Each structure stands twice: as structure tokens, then as C-alpha cells.
């Protein structure tokens, strides 16, 4: 892994909060996509995940982001700077 500059973990030692954004995302992915769903192929699963990631980033609004999607919120911040 070192040879290819790949890091096993970006978490700081003893700080479980470093990974909380991804844990939250995976929790939502499981709740909104996987729960009760049967996938018949890897390709079907992959398409579903890619579609959810697009939805999550571009269309899923969040209260803590002033009712904007993550992409729109980031654009708003960049335009304000």
C-alpha cells in the first residue's frame, strides 16, 4: 500500500468522530436503498448505488444545509467567498 501511496485509514488515532460523516452516509444508504431490497446482480447493485450517490449529492436537501443539496450548498459557499 505504501508503494502506491494508499492509506488504510485517514482517521486520527483514538478519534472515532473522523469517520462519522461516512458512517452516516452508509447508514442512510442502507436505510433508503438496501432495506428489504433484493439485487439479482452486481451490476444492478452498482447502478443502484451510483444512482443513490447522485441523488444524495444533487437532489437530497438537508435542513442543516439551509434546505439545499450538498452540491448546491458548496456552490453557495464558494460564490459567497
UniProtKB/TrEMBL annotation:
Entries under InterPro entries matching the protein: Integrase_cat-core (IPR001584), RNaseH-like_sf (IPR012337), RNaseH_sf (IPR036397), Transposase_IS3/IS150/IS904 (IPR050900)
Domain of life: Bacteria
Protein's recorded name: Integrase core domain-containing protein
GO biological process terms, semicolon-separated: DNA integration
Species classification: Bacteria, Bacillati, Bacillota, Bacilli, Lactobacillales
Gene Ontology MF: a single term: nucleic acid binding
PANTHER family linked: TRANSPOSASE INSF FOR INSERTION SEQUENCE IS3B-RELATED, TRANSPOSASE INSO FOR INSERTION SEQUENCE ELEMENT IS911B-RELATED
Domain Integrase catalytic: 1-78
Amino acid at each position: 500500500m505504501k508503494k502506491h501511496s494508499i492509506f488504510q485509514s485517514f482517521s486520527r488515532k483514538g478519534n472515532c468522530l473522523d469517520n462519522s460523516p461516512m458512517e452516516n452516509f452508509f447508514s442512510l444508504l442502507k436505510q433508503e436503498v438496501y432495506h428489504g431490497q433484493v439485487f439479482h446482480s452486481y451490476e444492478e447493485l452498482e447502478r443502484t448505488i451510483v444512482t443513490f450517490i447522485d441523488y444524495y449529492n444533487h437532489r437530497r436537501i438537508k435542513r442543516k444545509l439551509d434546505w439545499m443539496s450538498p452540491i448546491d450548498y458548496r456552490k453557495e459557499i464558494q460564490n459567497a467567498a
